Amino acid sequence: MNNPLKNSCRAIRLLALPAFLLCSRPCQAEQSGFISVRETVALQDDGSALVRSAVVVNKSGPGPLMLPFSYKAAEELRVTLGEKGAAVPARLEEIEGVKYLRLETGAPDLRGAELTATFRVPGYLDWKKAGPGEYGYYKWKSQYLNTTRRPIDSVTLEIVLPAGFIAAAFGKSVPAPAKEEALPPYSVKNMDGRSHLFMRAEALTIGKACSLEYSFAARKRSLWLPLAAALAALLYLVFFKDLVAGV
Amino acid sequence: MTQGEAQRHESGLHLDDFTLAKVPVRKPSASDRWLKYLGVPSAALILIYLLLMPTPAGLTLCGQKALAVFAMALVLWVTEPVPNYVASLLLMVMLVTMGVWEEKKVLGVLGMDVIWLNVTAFILSSVLVKTNLAKRLALQIAVKFGRRALPALLAFLALQLVLAALVPATAARSVMTLPIIMIVAAVYGSTVKNPNNFGKNLALLNLQGINIFSSGYLTGSTCNIMAAAFIFDMTSHKVYYSEWLLGAFPVVLCAMLLSCYLGPRLLFRLTPAQEQPSVPGGIDALTGELRKMGPVTLAEWHGALIFGLVLLLWVTDKYHKALFGFEISPVMAALIGCVIALSPRIGLLKWNEADIPWHLLIFSAGAYAGGLALTESGAAQWLVDSVFEIFAIKPGINFWALYSIIIAVSMFSHIVFTSKTIRTIILIPMIIAIANRLGFNPVALALPAAFTLSWVVTLPISGKPNVLFYGTNQYSIGDNLLSGLAVCAIGTALFILAGLTLYRAIGIVPY
Fold first, then answer.
1. CATH number at residue A99
2. More confident residue, B142 or A21
3. pTM value?
């Protein structure tokens, strides 16, 4: 049932987050923007996630670079300039309840440079909470939240399902599929034995999220339906033989 | 039965012969019986194969299941080992129990506007039948053009051609002509209980006429306008009414004339007996029957008035907002007509006299549920993508090879889509993107593809008129599939030919 008090609190939180982010210290110090973010979240059997975040930045000022961070924690954090470039000192920083990845980039001019952050998020997927529900489906939601002041031109969130699982269906997404758009903002690609789910968003402004609800199931197929169909076909051929008798 | 009633039965014009509410029983031919016998194993094999194959790259598990269940149902509908409504119910059950689509959504299909439009259409048709207005119009057509089968078919073709230019809603055109078609079919000996090849040809030709003539005019269907808007938004090329007419109409007309000839001569051949009215006394008897009806009765005027009001609301939909401050949808307009028709004193019909084929509505609901599940799960989109992928469309491809592929895909893709709108939204931007990527003029590919969007003639679920016409029991799903594929193949060939000649001349294709 709808709880008006809970809903009001949620609404206040939603309105307050952008306002807070605009006023927060890291944003005021920031002289940067992001051209694109491609965040790959590979779900693991133990519920953790290996995250690889490739960010094309447009930084042209001194000081640290604050990257948006949408998770509870990060372990084994490593940031490089480019795919295999020089390591960039980085740490997780929480300022007034909002988490960022603080990068000491050194070089003031990073226009068009790509930074790659990799880290492990323990307990990202709560298997018990996720399922299995009806039809053996697990349901989960992944999101990328822009906790910075500037809009991100383009965001691609890629979720790689654990080995042995396959994407079953898509649920709600933000942004939602637009009626006038030919394709929904999400898609799936089954490759290298893993299911990859893609969610894209354009011009992600302050406090906005790119999120996707999805369900997935074990790859192992149940045989009861094919067997039942085969049995029904066999019985039909036997008991309806009279249909073609004398033809 | 009185002597008069017996005579009317003999003449094939007894109104009880047009009852659709009861499921008709047909005696199957030898090939029908084999089809029925092999239908269940074939459906099971397809289901098993599609369920057990590895999930393709761009498909979800639900998409794969939706594809498997829909393919199974399609085989069952075509081969008819079980009645089509049973196949539809089975499809609905499987969609829910296999976790493809939510129960609420599957059951909710019965409340969709297309189902309501069917209900209201059958009520309004009953008005035309009860008041004898349909009989009068049918007799007039039969007397004027009905001495031979082909002129009678051509007369209906001409009627649909004119109506398409005046009435943009295909469902409205179906409701208007359906009772007349059924009575003319009966004149040629084809009733609901005992359909023959004339009835098959007449019903299928009208169905094709209603759908395909819509693509002849820019205003013939909402999807045409939507496609033109996409082309303008994405290429800045404004598609004018005259350009559309010049490009689409000649092809549409040629295809329909070919279909009118090929149907009775090749696909569903008419016997010499079916070439002429089968009523005792021939055309003279029909002339006598028309004369016997006397001048137009008050009830007929009353029926025409109710129907005219609904028609007026349908054709003036653009002006509703200015007139009333809100828009009356086609379903609401039909419902207004039904309220009047069923009201005591001011109406004409009692509920028991409304001839509503519920078995058909159940069939439609299941079929729509399957189609929508295909779309929502992304399986329909995946199928279209796969077809383009199979043809390996890469830079360097010959323009005419690409043109032919695009025409064929946009023509036949209606088999897996139940909505012209969704097909337009998916196909037209995709074609423009492909053309841009390969360096071709996007209008040269997107506009001819847009001309094919209304050719939804292959299955009873391909469009609203299709469901209505299938209810006449004049043809089976297999017949619909055969004639639909034939006319679509003709259309594809004609659009390719037009591309090489006419479209070059008028500048649609600058190659």
1. 2.60.40
2. B142
3. 0.78
User: Which among B30, B52, B377 has CB closest to A221?
Assistant: B52
CB A214 within 8 A of CB A136: no
Phi, psi of A11 (to 5 degrees): -65, -40
ipTM exceeding 0.85, yes/no: no
- Cβ-contact A40, A52 below 8 angstroms: yes
Split into its structural domains, chain A has a count of 1
- From A155's Cα to the closest Cα of chain B, the distance in A is 20
Q: Hey, of A139, A170, A216, A219, which one would you mutate to test binding to chain B, going by the most B CBs within 10 A of its CB?
A: A170
pLDDT tens track for B378-419: 888 888 788 777 877 777 889 999 999 999 999 998 987 777
Kindly report the length of chain A: 247
d(CA B268, CA B390): 34
Backbone angles phi, psi at A45, to 5 degrees: -60, -35
| Contact status of A218 with chain B (Cβ, < 8 Å) | no
Q: Reduced to 3 states, what is the DSSP secondary structure of residue B62?
A: helix
- What is the span of the domain harbouring residue A170? 4-222
Is A228 a member of any domain? no
Residue B143 contacts A, CB cutoff 8 Å: no
Q: Nearest CA to A175 among A214, A206, A203?
A: A203
Give the Cβ contact number of residue A158 at 10 Å: 17
User: Phi/psi zone of residue B417: left (φ > 0), alpha (ψ -120 to 50 degrees), beta?
Assistant: beta
Select from B40, B62, B381 the Cβ nearest to the Cβ of A168: B62
CB-based contact B440:B396 (threshold 8 Å): no
Strands A65-68 and A49-60: unpaired
> Which residue shows structure tokens 């020089």?
A86
For tokens 């003709």, the residue is: B490
Chain A CB contacts of B37 below 8 Å: 237, 240-241, 243-244
